[in-house]
Write a structure and sequence with these properties.
The chain is of the alpha/beta class and 146 residues long. The chain has seven helices and five strands. It has one domain (5-125): Methylglyoxal synthase-like domain (Rossmann fold, 3-Layer(aba) Sandwich). The protein has helices at residues 15-24, 26-29, 38-48, 63-72, 92-104, 113-120, 138-141, and strands at residues 5-10, 33-36, 54-55, 78-82, 109-110.
C-alpha cells in the first residue's frame, strides 16, 4: 500500500487547534508521512513523540514555498492548513501562492477542522486504487504529460 503524505501548516493562533486535532487522530496519522512547517512541526513532534515528521522552514521564512514545491513534485497528497481568517499575515502572498499551487495540482486542502475531519476519514485516504487526476499542462509546457 502506498503511504499518503500530508502537509500540516497552521498560523500562530491556530497551532494549538491543529496539534490537538492531530493528537486526537494520532491513530489515523500513524500510517501517514507527515510534513510540517517550522514551529508547527516542532510542536507536533513534541506532542506526538514522532521523530519522522519532516520539518521545513517557518512559513514566512520559506516553508510555504517548500511545501508548494513538494506539491508540484507530487510528494504531497493532502494539505491541512489551519489559517487564521481574523489576523492579517505579513506573508500573505506566500500563503496565496501555496493555496494556488495546491488548487493547480488538484490537491485537497482543508482550511479548518471540519473539512480536515471529512477528508481524513474519507475512504480515499486508505484506498490505494484512488489516484487524483493530475492536470495536463502540456499546452503550457510544450511537453507531453509524464
Amino acid at each position: 500500500m502506498a503511504v499518503k503524505s500530508v502537509a500540516l501548516v497552521a498560523h500562530d493562533n491556530k497551532k494549538r487547534e491543529l496539534v490537538d486535532w492531530v493528537s486526537e487522530n494520532r491513530t489515523r496519522f500513524a500510517a501517514l508521512r507527515l510534513y510540517a512547517s517550522g514551529t508547527t512541526g516542532r510542536l507536533l513532534k513534541e506532542d506526538l513523540g514522532r521523530d519522522d515528521i519532516v520539518c521545513l522552514l517557518s512559513g514566512p521564512l520559506g516553508g510555504d514555498q517548500q511545501i508548494g514545491a513538494k506539491i508540484a513534485e507530487g510528494e504531497i497528497d493532502l494539505l491541512v492548513f489551519f489559517w487564521d481568517p481574523l489576523e492579517p499575515q505579513p506573508h500573505d502572498p506566500d500563503i496565496k501562492a501555496l493555496l494556488r499551487i495546491a488548487a493547480l495540482w488538484n490537491i485537497p486542502v482543508a482550511c479548518n477542522r471540519a473539512t480536515a475531519e471529512f477528508i481524513l476519514t474519507s475512504a480515499y485516504m486508505t484506498d490505494d486504487q484512488h489516484q487524483p487526476k493530475k492536470p495536463d499542462f502540456s499546452s503550457y509546457t510544450g511537453r507531453p504529460v509524464n
